[in-house]
Amino acid sequence: MLPKKARKKLLNKEIVFYKTLDILDEYKPEPAKKSIPEWYRNTENYMGNEKKPNGNAQTSATIKKCMPVFDAITAGYIITTYADIFVSRQTIQINSGEIITSPWYEWPSIESIQFHPIEQAPLHPANQNSPYPKFMNPWGIKTPKGYSILFIPPMHRKTPFNILPGIVDTDTYVPPVNFPFVLSDPEFEGLIPAGTPVAQLIPFKRESWLSSVSTKEIFNQIIDVNKKLSSHFFDKYKSFFWHRKDYK
User: How confident is the model at residue 3 (pLDDT cuts 50, 70, 90)?
Assistant: First the structure.
């Protein structure tokens, strides 16, 4: 294997996380491939755990053999909570003077959450008629020139909350990017433990694109692809079309 400096020079792409709060190192960002959800780990590769056609000339492969799902789960990097957060319910008065019952958040140490008033995004489809909580991210992020990051809820996971997705040009904006969120269930109460995945970070190169409708040439390509798909029972997409994506 090439030395780290040689690999860095060869690839010329490195994402750097730097800690801005005094938190435990165990909650540092990790490649998403190191944080595979349990449901995925526990799913068999094939129905009945048998690699054979299903009796109707179709594959018996499960979702675990679907490479687009695998690529989504393992794409980029994961940032987690760094302290326990407990959610309960409390009656509060918002800026308009209205009295509402709203989630109440508590945490044991460093300020883990701040809030945006409803009035900042009153028409957002995720509005739950209460202030928007925001996870305070302890990690600044730096990407190479020309690269941004897509911040999204961790894909294919069931969590008590979902961040509001966003894109940040992290080659020029390097302070921590914080994560406004809403509860998956507005009535949720309970503990969100430290180490819970908060955001999935996917770096991408900023490029300009044009769009067009399909052409005869592309239609013929679709026919050729379908011929390959029709020739195998198992791992068709992976064998013929998939490309490895690597995040370390």
Answer: low
Domains of the chain: 78-205 (2.70.40)
- The answer to whether residue 109 scores a pLDDT higher than 80 is no
Phi, psi of 63 (to 5 degrees): -60, -25
CA 161 – CA 28 distance, rounded (Å):
20
Angle value at C-alpha 90, between 107 and 153, nearest 5 degrees: 55
Residues 76 and 57 sit within 8 Å (Cβ to Cβ): no
Task: Determine if the pTM surpasses 0.90.
Answer: no
Rounded to 10 degrees, the C-alpha dihedral 237/239/245/246 comes to 150
Does the pLDDT of residue 1 top 80, yes or no? no
DSSP SS3 for 199? strand
The pLDDT assigned to 240 comes to 79
